[in-house]
Write a structure and sequence with these properties.
This protein has 376 residues and is an alpha+beta fold. It contains 15 helices and 13 strands. It has three domains: 168 residues, GAF domain (Beta-Lactamase), CATH 3.30.450; 118 residues, Beta-Lactamase (2-Layer Sandwich), CATH 3.30.450; 74 residues, Winged helix-like DNA-binding domain superfamily/Winged helix DNA-binding domain (Arc Repressor Mutant, subunit A), CATH 1.10.10. The protein is 41% helix and 21% strand. The model has no long low-confidence stretch (mean pLDDT 78).
Amino acid sequence: MGLNVSVQGQIEHLKGVISRGQTGSSPWLAVVAELCDAFGAAGAAVYAPPYHGRPVIPFLMHNLDFSAIAHRLAAYTNRAPFLHAAMERGLVPGVFTDREVIPFEQLQQQDYYKEILVPLRWADALQMAPRAPSATEAGLVFAFYRFGDDAPFDADSQRLAQILLPHLSECARDHFRAPLQEAASPALRALDGFSTPCLVVSASGKCVHANPAAQALLKEDKGLSLRNGVVTAADAKANKQLHDATQHAASAPDSEPAEILLSANGAPPLLAIIAPLPSGDAAVRFEDHACAAIYLVRVEGETQYAAQARRAQLLFSLTAAETGILSLFLAGRSLSDISAERKTAIFTVRTQLKSIMHKTHSRHQLDLLRFRRLAP
């Protein structure tokens, strides 16, 4: 079925509006406002969707005020249900309403709906995604909203959006680009094989890379989490120590590693080890700034000295046997006690202790006691 003359004229007019945004002869906010009117929407936004743990990045807002719920947005930016469900169902790029992505009855059970959409008096949303998120590209969404008692967007609005989408995609390609996440370098991919949680962070605390073990730990949100992409400790004092140590390690590649004990109410503490990374390695740089590594050790199930020995193992590549010996040595055991407890010849214990001293750049056995220290 062909389009009637008036509808075809409206489409050509809107294509011209979008093209003027591309050439810069018309502000993009004006383009969004005119598209908003064409769809009969109460407001609109252009934003980058959640991507690899990165929060939503708003670019343009027309007739929208999210200030009343600004404190809630950060908690939901990485799990807004609409876009993720659409991606899973192959609906991006394309045009879809929220209710087509997630049944309205199911949506009503979402905290996102109860704590964000209800306070906004949300009725419906028409979302267009000119570029699908991929491994290296964040994508873009044009969202048009109706509020209060407004009727949901009808089939004509969706059809109009479908017709305009290819043109919008072409014209928006070089505008509103979200920060791209490059494919992980070999140096960062190597960290993914670690069973120990490890983060690579910039001097400002921005997370550049988190290996799978660290991602799982961060999701627990116990003692340490990501807030708008920044590594944040639950305790305010520990958070300041963490950021100061990270900034120092990133700016001073020859500095000594620092360790901070992170705790959360009702959760076992974490031992954060902040170590510098080679400043000349482009693979561990962020926005042309050097980064630092944060290794995380669960203190749960370990004695204090075992946790400290584990820290030394991470920093100086100790073997499992050397780590066990160091743990007993830090606990004040003599070499003969260590030999008896490990059922190992005392000569072997001495040899392994010498290896530990060599790896940790210790001149004397007493130098190893520095691993007892923990930041308060």
